[in-house]
Amino acid sequence: MAEPIRVVVTGAAGQIAYSLLYQLAKGDVFGEKQPLSLHLLDIEPMMGVLNGVVMELQDCALPLLREVIPTADPAVGFKDVDAAFLVGAMPRKEGMERKDLLAANVKIFKAQGQALDQHAKKTVKVLVVGNPANTNSLICSKYAPSIPPANFSAMTRLDQNRAQAQIANRLGVPVNNVNKVTIWGNHSSTQFPDVANATVVTANGETKSVADAINDQAWLNGDFISTVQKRGAAVIAARKLSSAMSAAKAAADHMKDWWNGSPEGSWVSMAVFSDGSYNTPAGVMYSFPVRCSKGQWEIVQGLNLDEFARGKLDLTSKELLEERDEALAVCQD
Ligand SMILES: NC(=O)C1=CN([C@@H]2O[C@H](COP(=O)(O)OP(=O)(O)OC[C@H]3O[C@@H](n4cnc5c(N)ncnc54)[C@H](O)[C@@H]3O)[C@@H](O)[C@H]2O)C=CC1
Ligand SMILES: O=C([O-])CC(=O)C(=O)O
Q1: Is residue 279 marked as binding?
Q2: What DSSP designation does 135 have?
Q3: Ligand 2 pocket list (CB less than 6 A)
């Protein structure tokens, strides 16, 4: 058996963590042969609740789970970690945009960047889930200069999963028959869910472009995009709480593919530092189509963008630049 790895989940007493921890502890992400120590970080007033989560993890009787460390001290939470799920942050309520959380949440990611810098392994892979995720991840990396920027990412996998599910549902095929769906830009209502390169294995076993299989460009350019862009708000309106089960599944999917490699012949969407690819602003955390192999991601190059797509990419770029400037100002206060 391999040596245990150390994995931290912040916001460990919250909603998303409640679904995520089970997936981690049973081997869904790092593999069924990879034992792990789980570091559970939350704030002091939540330590009682967190203790209940620790009891439940113990009661799950999972053989891969070697140790559980509940704590409110970031120095303990981030000590020697190999992977970090930064979930702990305020969720939005009905009527808010995710960027309305920026002032409240970004300082958490400044402090956690500093703590990661001091205490985590330099090889740690960091996934930011807490909103506004792209900009929080940028700030976290900025305050962790000893860790390579490529080790930071933000989650748009939930948007990818939503887009794939919308297409699969419309075509009446299982979701994994749909490939190469891309989410560009910000995890916000300006994101661009793009199926121009997506393929589907149809019910009779034929591989087709999604555009041909759907045969309704007005839907693809209209309701499909807005449904994915506004899905988080729709869940909040229905549940009075933001998505948690699906967010946890997406966080597990994101880290699993980063750690083990993305599916052969397809790609996944991750927000990573832009290098200017596709004329996006270098230095912001931008969601791209990526391929992962041996723990590294690489932006898929050479995709054609028509005028419609170009406009969408530019719009979400503009929002990310505005968020970056606001976040930097908040962090200087
Ligand atoms: N990127 C994405 O696709 C998604 C992001 N989210 C975001 O994830 C975040 C968490 O959502 P939920 O789990 O539903 O919220 P929640 O309110 O149920 O849990 C958040 C937890 O974080 C803790 N926390 C607050 N400050 C902390 C700190 N400094 N250190 C450690 N823990 C801290 C809180 O005490 C609480 O236990 C929200 O910002 C939400 O908007 C939610 C869904 C999808
Ligand atoms: O909508 C929210 O605030 C939570 C979230 O990020 C999502 O469900 O995509």
Answers
A1: no
A2: H
A3: 91-92, 98, 131, 158, 232-233, 235-236, 242-243, 247
Query: Counting atoms of ligand 1 from 1, which one is nearest the CA of 243?
Result: 43
Domain with CATH 3.90.110.10 in the chain: 157-322
Protein residue whose Cα sits closest to atom 2 of ligand 1: 129
C-alpha 86 to ligand 2 mean position (Å): 15
Residues of the chain with CATH 3.40.50.720: 5-154
> 64 CA to middle of ligand 2, Å?
30
Question: The domain 157-322: what is its CATH number?
Answer: 3.90.110.10
Backbone CA torsion sign across 38, 295, 188, 222: negative
Q: Residue with the nearest Cα to atom 8 of ligand 2? A: 232
Q: Whose CA is nearest to atom 16 of ligand 1?
A: 14
Say whether 92 counts as a known binding-site residue: yes
284 neighbors 276 (Cβ within 8 angstroms): no
Residue 147's φ and ψ, nearest 5 degrees, are -105, 130
Q: What is the pLDDT of residues 235-292, one digit of tens each?
A: 999 999 999 999 999 999 999 999 999 999 999 999 999 999 999 999 999 999 999 9
Q: Hey, what are 212's tokens?
A: 């041909």
Confirm whether pTM is higher than 0.90: yes
CA angle 253, 264, 178 (to 5 degrees): 65
CA distance 237 to 181: 26
5-154 maps to CATH 3.40.50.720: yes
* Cα separation, 95 vs 120, whole angstroms: 37
Q: State how far Cα 305 lies from the chain centre.
A: 24
- In the block, residue with structure tokens 């190469």: 180
Provide the ipTM: 0.99
**CA 16 / ligand 1 centre spacing (Å):** 7
Ligand sitting nearest the alpha carbon of 269: 1
Assign residue 261 a region (left: φ > 0; alpha: ψ between -120 and 50; beta: otherwise). left
